[in-house]
Amino acid sequence: MSAYALKIRPVEGFDIPVLAALHAACFTAPWDQPWTDRSFAEVLQMPGAGARIAALGPEPIGFAVARMVADEAELLLIGIHPEYRRAGYGRMLLDDLLEGRNAVSVGHRSSIPCQPAALRPRLSGGLIAS
Fold it and tell me: How far does Cα 129 stand from its chain's mean position?
């Protein structure tokens, strides 16, 4: 366990290689498709796309990528490095993504309102473990 508090912030362009490295560490099953720097860059250029990165001190430990269109959100990816799982960081990252002071940051373009209440029952129904 780390002595640092979890910090979650919007992804910047310089974070893209970090996202690709975290993805490789998080998704290791034979059927997982690797996301490269280019994959992340292309998705994050889509209208309404955004990402958050979670870090303990200087060490990035997780990320979430989502896309917002009108009043709907699509969670594209969420991952926590295996060494930091089962500590509630994934839940914190998802909560930050959903609530984010009632907006999900989509890069430098804008913020789009988010309706986390609609998703909350599904999360507490055992679909996502803390």
Answer: 16
Contacts of 78 (CB under 8 A, 6+ apart): 62, 63, 64, 65, 90, 93, 94, 97
Tens-place pLDDT, residues 16-48: 999 999 999 999 898 989 899 999 999 999 998
- Any domain includes 53: yes
pLDDT tens-place string over residues 54-81: 999 999 999 999 988 877 888 899 999 9
Tokens of 99: 């609530």
Q: Is residue 1 part of a domain?
A: no
Q: Output the six-digit token pair for 114.
A: 């988010």
The CATH number of whichever domain residue 47 belongs to comes to 3.40.630.30
State the pTM of this model: 0.74
Range of the domain at 50: 6-127
